[in-house]
């Protein structure tokens, strides 16, 4: 009886191994895909245009801080104590405003970049799914999770081409 159970277990393991051997497995290099996508440049330009007014405002604030510091150094010897105090307060106020607006701008640009990156990642995933489905792949892994795979199992170029066509 024990021999029969062992034989059945061995046969089951062999059949499972054979079934796995028949699976079609592909890989994608996500880093390569993102570097080659034309949408990446479009997104970058879109975000640049979206935030340009705020970048301009930051440049103006930085210029104002620089001008106030120059005035402070240049006119310090001829200013009254009250004028010096007033200029120091104005400088501190502009610096604080610039810091606050800079922090908000950084947070907003990071958030929007993440939103756009996630949207693009969703599109890439749809392309991968479509290719895998059309070509009969059972599994598609990221290339950094695989020690070795034949070049013909790499779907990265196909994904990029599909994404270029899907613009």
From TrEMBL:
Entry keyword set: Coiled coil, Signal
MF-aspect GO terms: unfolded protein binding
Signal peptide annotation: 1-21
Single GO BP term: protein stabilization
Coiled coil regions, renumbered to chain: 58-117
Family: Belongs to the skp family.
GO cellular component, one term: cytosol
Name of the molecule in the record: Molecular chaperone
Pfam families per record: OmpH
Keyword Signal: yes
Domain of life: Bacteria
């Amino acid at each position: 009886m024990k021999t029969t159970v062992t034989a059945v277990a061995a046969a089951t393991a062999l059949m499972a191994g054979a079934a796995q051997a028949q699976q079609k497995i592909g890989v994608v290099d996500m880093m390569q895909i993102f570097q080659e996508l034309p949408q990446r440049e479009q997104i970058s330009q879109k975000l640049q245009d979206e935030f340009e007014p705020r970048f301009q405002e930051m440049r103006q604030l930085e210029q104002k801080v620089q001008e106030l510091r120059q005035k402070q150094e240049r006119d310090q010897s001829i200013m009254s104590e009250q004028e010096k105090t007033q200029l120091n307060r104005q400088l501190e106020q502009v610096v604080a405003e610039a810091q606050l607006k800079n922090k908000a701008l950084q947070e907003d640009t990071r958030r929007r970049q993440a939103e756009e990156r996630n949207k693009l990642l969703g599109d890439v995933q749809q392309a991968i799914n479509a290719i895998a489905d059309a070509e009969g792949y059972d599994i598609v892994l990221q290339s950094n999770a695989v020690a070795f795979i034949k070049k013909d199992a790499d779907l990265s170029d196909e994904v990029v081409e599909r994404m270029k066509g899907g613009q």
